[in-house]
Write a structure and sequence with these properties.
By secondary structure, this protein is of the alpha+beta class. The chain has one domain: Creatinase/methionine aminopeptidase superfamily (Creatine Amidinohydrolase). It is 28% helix and 25% strand. It contains 5 helices and 15 strands. The strands form 5 sheets. Strands 1, 2, 4 and 5 form a 4-stranded antiparallel β-sheet that branches. Strands 3-12-11 form a 3-stranded antiparallel β-sheet, with no helix packed on it. Bound molecules: 2-amino-4-trifluoromethylsulfanyl-butyric acid and cobalt (II) ion (2 copies). 2-amino-4-trifluoromethylsulfanyl-butyric acid binds next to strand 4.
Amino acid sequence: MLSPLKKPIPLYLTEEQRTGLRLAGKFNAQLMDMLREHVRAGVTTDQLDRLAYEYTIEHGHQPACIGYHGYPKTICTSVNEVVCHGIPNQVELKNGDIVNVDITTIVNGWYGDQSETFMVGEVSAAARRLIQTTFDSLYVGIRACRPGGTVMDIGRAIQFFAQKAGYSVVREYQGHGIGREFHQEPGVPHFPSLTSSRDILRPGTCFTIEPMLNIGGWKTRLDKKDGWTVRTLDGSLSAQFEHTILMTEVGPEILTLTENGPQEGHRF
Ligand code: MF3
Ligand code: CO
Ligand code: CO
């Protein structure tokens, strides 16, 4: 007989629900692979936004960001010192820029969310190293989590890794539970915190990991005019990568793996 303290952990997402999320992650990754070919000097972030919108609609799916708390576009494009939530505009990307492209789509009611930071042409050694470390920190976070562990395992590993490389981790924005909602419990801070030490990663939990690393300090400033664009307070470069992760009985499963993008261990 099971003691009352050892109740089997109930499944959070059923197999059928997991299938819904897998399909959403897969489509979202396919969209990222499509956009990847277009990220180069001379392209405006508005052009990338339009491509993403049309591709999503043509495939019968929904862009998640447009109208989300009034957000005006399909994707977020965060250039150089922009940490996240940069709004696509008519400015052309130029040689030496780094740009994070963050895309979220809805497939049959399920959300997929991911981002990559791209190098436009030749970038500085400092920018390349930041991108490498940020990409690696995402995988450090993914490899730190296990079924029955806590959300804090992720933040602790990322913070340790980033700090060792000399970067700061953004604290005001974090990963999140995801499913039939864009943002839900649990919050996934990329540093250790008390609440995350209490959140158990039960099999069937789906969430994002999306570390933002800065060359300078961790503090950010929200653009007062557009109400969205988040920049580093000190103007230093910032990079980010994001995947949607399903915790299964045997470990984390990455739902937003691309076919043509950087894979675990990639050297930029
Ligand atoms: N995709 C972002 C995230 O990773 C959220 C963007 S919200 C928007 O959570 F409204 F700015 F699009
Ligand atoms: Co996210
Ligand atoms: Co995102």
